[in-house]
Design brief:
alpha/beta, Rossmann fold, 5-stranded mixed sheet
Length: about 325
């Protein structure tokens, strides 16, 4: 076997060296292990490296596959070398049941039909649907012991409690927003809240969110999450959704939420910290839905290899945990 010097001093077959140099890898107990998301596991044998088993793709089921977000996740999943879209789910009365999920998503033929039942093996399920459907797929995942990504918003307190209880049995990523920029902005907002919580002149916090006209819940789950995290740091106990009439002076212990619904806006949030004489505003906005779809796919890759528990997007993205 022709060999050349490889990474960290071992000698590898010259045909494999370019492959190895592309990926993150480690030697553990005689095994050369390539990070799961990059390609495979290799065994060191003498002066060469033999590929023992290529790592499989993360097989996903998409719940809500014919919705606006579901279609983007299917299309982007089809283009992702680390993802295999194995199942596409919708409610039983949906007009597209039985049609090819790839074509529904505006992509190529996938040879996966839209169905109301999960009937194949998958590594993780992504739920981007409506509360009733989200509850149903949660129960399915618990029964089948499947990792789950929950991105559906508008859940009732009882449904949220079900997620907490189910996380004792299966691994779950639960987040109101899958975007890297949004989750980074949440960290920035918490940093600002911590810095301003003892400001002597008082700080008024208002949250403005803007979404497309088709969104069915208000305010957005992301806006509520911003408020929850800020209140945890600053101590506000009142959460007011809009104002009308003779409301009197603004209490110091409230956070105001304002929901705008306009055309096809994919989502933006502004958090206002109002001080006497100056204002701090933190804004994050999406220009299309791909940020959320890509985050959901990343979450599926992450949760497929986790033990039971409740995880957030900070865990997925490697950001500091603030909640």
């Amino acid at each position: 076997m022709q060999t050349i010097d490889g990474p960290i001093g071992i000698r590898v077959d010259s045909d494999l060296r370019p492959f190895l140099l592309r990926f993150r890898w480690y030697i553990i107990g005689g095994l050369l292990v390539i990070d799961r998301k990059y390609g495979g596991i290799c065994l060191v044998l003498g002066s060469g490296v033999e590929i023992v088993r290529p790592m499989s793709k993360t097989r996903i089921a998409m719940n809500g596959a014919a919705g606006r977000m579901g279609k983007r996740i299917v299309a982007l999943g089809m283009a992702d070398d680390e993802i295999e879209v194995s199942a596409a789910l919708e409610f039983s009365e949906h007009a597209d049941i039985g049609k090819d999920a790839g074509l529904i998503a505006g992509a190529a033929q996938l040879d996966v039909l839209l169905s109301d039942q999960l009937e194949c093996e998958v590594d993780a399920v992504i739920d981007f649907s409506v509360p009733a459907s989200s509850q149903k797929i949660l129960e399915t995942c618990v029964t089948a012991n499947l990792p789950l990504v929950v991105a559906t918003t508008g859940l009732t307190a009882e449904q949220q409690q079900q997620i907490h209880e189910s996380a004792r049995t299966i691994p779950i990523v639960w987040a109101p927003n899958m975007s890297l920029a949004v989750n980074l902005t949440m960290n920035l907002a918490v940093t600002a809240a911590r810095a301003l919580k003892d400001y002597s002149g008082g700080v008024d916090v208002e949250i403005i969110e803007r979404h497309h006209r088709f969104k069915e819940d208000a305010p957005s789950g992301t806006a509520l999450k911003f408020g929850e995290q800020i209140a945890r740091e600053m101590g506000q106990t009142r959460h007011v959704h809009g104002r009308q009439g003779q409301t009197g002076q603004r209490p110091a212990d409230e956070i105001g939420y304002h929901a705008l619904r306009v055309a096809d806006n994919p989502g933006e949030h502004t958090i206002i910290f109002g001080l006497m004489g100056e204002t701090v505003e933190v804004t994050v906005r999406a220009t299309n839905r791909d940020a959320y779809a890509l985050g959901a796919l990343q979450a599926a890759k992450f949760i497929a290899r986790q033990s039971p528990g409740l995880y957030g997007m900070n865990d997925v993205l490697g950001l500091p945990v603030v909640d």
